[in-house]
Amino acid sequence: MAETVLVERKGRVATLRINRPEALNALNSAVLAEMLEKAAALDADREIGCLIVTGSEKAFAAGADIKEMNEKSNMDMFYDDFFAGWDGFAKLRTPKIAAVAGYALGGGCELAMMCDFIIAADSAKFGQPEIKLGVIPGMGGSQRLARSIGKAKAMDMVLTGRMMDAAEAERCGLVSRIVAADALMDEAMKAAEIIAGYSKPSTMVAKEAVDRAFETSLAEGLHYERRVFFGLFATHDQKEGMSAFAEKRKPDFRHE
Ligand code: CAA
Description:
By secondary structure, the chain is of the alpha/beta class. It contains 12 helices and 10 strands. A 6-stranded mixed sheet has the order 1-2-3-5-7-10, sandwiched between helices.
């Protein structure tokens, strides 16, 4: 059977490409299983400093696989805890960038939001169209979209099921930058190589600290940040980074 997630490694960056062109990269159980297995292995690899998650020019992913879900009963969904497996992807500790071209709908938009940030091609289209199917987002859309773009826009998207283009997505803060479609992978790779070039423990805790802002009070978050900041002084790379600055040379990070 064809692989539904293709992996390519370049130096310290690994790209995970969803590969179901016949279904606009709809996320079925095979994609989930392969994504989890491959991403978890890369996450555990100290030689990998950043992940890129992407799809095709036409679709990042057009959602969860509707045909796979269609016949399921409430009890099937309940006992399988359908979609819960994706939490494992969201929790990966290596920084991950979503490089989105074309459709990022339903579970596709939700998968992109599980990444640390989204770089969008000018062709990207985001949406949570589940309402048109008689359901609602099930992979985090109602929660992550609201936190990402605020109540007004999130309600608009979730209740009308409309799509937003890349420009609107950038205006409302869903994506960090827009690039020409043919430059998408180069730009994502450049950003990933920058991140992967830093000390991995510091990028891992940097993203943990930002994520903490969405889980806790400001006082607790500030306390957490300071504790983690102090913790980095136990690394080789903190000494190396600061010494290199003082000695006007490039740091030689060992990722420890
Ligand atoms: N699940 C299963 N198959 C899908 C799919 C999906 N989410 N999206 C597209 N496909 C399939 C189509 O059925 C079609 O297959 P066939 O050729 O075998 O008929 C193929 O991909 C190409 O799709 P279209 O012919 O529809 O392509 P288009 O260019 O005319 O339209 C589109 C593109 C507007 C994205 C349209 O495909 C569409 O609306 N897709 C569904 C989007 C959607 O509702 N996503 C939410 C899914 S539910 C969900 O994600 C729940 C959750 O919160 C996790």
